[in-house]
């Protein structure tokens, strides 16, 4: 078999790594991929060059294409591949709007009766600022469209909230025509992803991301500074069952009833409030860096989930009971102004750690250089969370951190009972 993975980050490297364990797969291509994806053949096609990707898949007779990032999904890569008669796993352009437009997602949740924060939508900074002053803080400000995980501000003052609104309309997160303002939910966050095909939903194991840039959940939001799974501080089975009943199933049933059925990796960011799980956001793809800690726990081959699911069957999915911790190595200055071009010395990372490349490029003389805000995702798996945390941070003690930093408290919440 030949498989194509679309994307270039740590999530896509984890997908390539998982697929490489499947003995039925002869060749894995990554477009455009990155220098760390030694398990794949990287092809120089941008992830948003949909016509070129379709032609490549035709020419190489690709059996399956798996899409990592949200950008090409929102642009309609699945529509284009399906029109060409090519197998691809992901949502259509219409279904990907649950991530491409927060306004669309909120309206959909309202129609489906899915618990989420009270919210309002504004198309001007003046109206949004007036609303903020009337509501007070804390309050949450979200850019309506795609913002690479950074278009969200949990503002503790009205001044901070108004500044966030002004930045969104100034184009700091790309072209945005509206802003969604939400009440600030109280609780602890977790990520629940699922394999979905129309109205069939297979939940994955829970994970927890760390969005804030610094230890202690301080500083601005990022695309994610680390993650871990499982979440021993919760009754995971109860959380998953309630979220399936109140969130995931109602969503896919509503989308199917409206003629926009969802297929792909569905991500629900949840706040576990005293009233139960409430949706922070939906994504139309695997989370990042959650993918890097979820896939090491997936004992079933990825295609043994995807292919039967697409054929209308219910595959058996087996998960490891072991603990996985992932720590993001970020560039100094991230998320606002990340430094690039620093030498990345993966050889200085200790043993027992799997390294996924997220923002790297090839330098001279077979060196690797940083080329983004999140540079590496370092992951380890162990029988207990204590062992996993110990191994990951001992291994990072020796890493050459010139130009880089990382959080030192990933998975700390796992040791607190609720």
Automatic annotation (TrEMBL):
E.C. designation(s): 6.3.4.13
This protein's pathway: Purine metabolism; IMP biosynthesis via de novo pathway; N(1)-(5-phospho-D-ribosyl)glycinamide from 5-phospho-alpha-D-ribose 1-diphosphate: step 2/2
Top-rank EC class of the record's enzyme: ligase
One term of GO molecular function: phosphoribosylamine-glycine ligase activity
InterPro entries listed in its UniProt record: ATP-grasp, ATP_grasp_subdomain_1, PreATP-grasp_dom_sf, PRibGlycinamid_synth_ATP-grasp, PRibGlycinamide_synth, PRibGlycinamide_synth_C-dom, PRibGlycinamide_synth_C_sf, PRibGlycinamide_synth_CS
Domain ATP-grasp: 106-311
Keyword Transcription attributed: no
Catalytic reaction(s) noted: 5-phospho-beta-D-ribosylamine + glycine + ATP = N(1)-(5-phospho-beta-D-ribosyl)glycinamide + ADP + phosphate + H(+)
Cofactor(s) in the UniProt record: Mn(2+); Mg(2+)
Swiss-Prot/TrEMBL keywords: ATP-binding, Ligase, Nucleotide-binding, Purine biosynthesis
Stated family: Belongs to the GARS family.
Name of the protein described by the UniProt record: Phosphoribosylamine--glycine ligase
């Amino acid at each position: 078999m030949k498989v194509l993975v679309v994307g270039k980050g740590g999530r896509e490297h984890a997908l390539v790594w998982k697929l490489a364990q499947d003995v039925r797969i002869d060749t894995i291509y990554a477009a455009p991929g990155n220098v760390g994806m030694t398990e794949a053949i990287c092809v120089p096609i941008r992830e948003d060059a949909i016509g070129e990707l379709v032609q490549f898949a035709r020419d190489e007779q690709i059996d399956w294409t798996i899409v990592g990032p949200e950008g090409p999904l929102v642009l309609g890569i699945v529509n284009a591949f399906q029109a060409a008669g090519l197998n691809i796993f992901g949502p259509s352009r219409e279904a990907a709007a649950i991530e491409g437009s927060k306004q669309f997602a909120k309206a959909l949740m309202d129609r489906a009766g899915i618990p989420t924060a009270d919210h309002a939508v504004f198309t001007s900074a003046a109206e949004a600022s007036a609303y903020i002053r009337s509501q007070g803080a804390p309050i949450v400000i979200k850019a309506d469209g795609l913002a690479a995980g950074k278009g969200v501000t949990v503002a503790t003052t009205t001044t901070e909230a108004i500044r966030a609104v002004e930045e969104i309309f100034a184009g700091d997160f790309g072209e945005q025509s509206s802003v969604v303002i939400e009440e600030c939910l109280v609780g602890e966050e977790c990520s629940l992803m699922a394999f979905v095909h129309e109205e069939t939903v297979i939940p994955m194991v829970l994970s927890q991301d760390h969005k804030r840039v610094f230890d202690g959940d301080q500083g601005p939001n990022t695309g994610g500074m680390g993650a871990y799974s499982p979440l021993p501080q919760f009754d995971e089975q109860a959380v998953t069952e309630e979220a399936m009943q109140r969130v995931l199933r109602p969503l896919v049933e509503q989308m199917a009833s409206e003629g926009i059925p969802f297929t792909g990796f569905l991500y629900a960011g949840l706040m576990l409030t005293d009233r139960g799980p409430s949706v922070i956001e939906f994504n139309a793809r695997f989370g990042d860096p959650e993918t890097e800690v979820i896939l090491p726990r997936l004992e079933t081959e990825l295609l043994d989930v995807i292919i039967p699911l697409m054929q209308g069957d219910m595959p058996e999915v087996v998960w490891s009971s072991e603990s996985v911790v992932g720590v993001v190595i970020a560039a100094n200055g991230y998320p606002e102004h990340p430094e690039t071009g620093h030498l990345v010395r993966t050889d200085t990372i200790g043993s027992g750690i799997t390294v996924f490349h997220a923002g790297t490029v090839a330098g001279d003389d077979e060196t690797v250089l940083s080329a983004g805000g999140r540079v590496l995702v370092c992951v380890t798996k162990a029988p207990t969370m204590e062992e996993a945390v110990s191994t990951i941070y001992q291994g990072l003690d020796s890493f050459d951190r010139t130009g880089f930093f990382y959080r030192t408290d990933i998975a700390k919440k796992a040791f607190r009972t609720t």
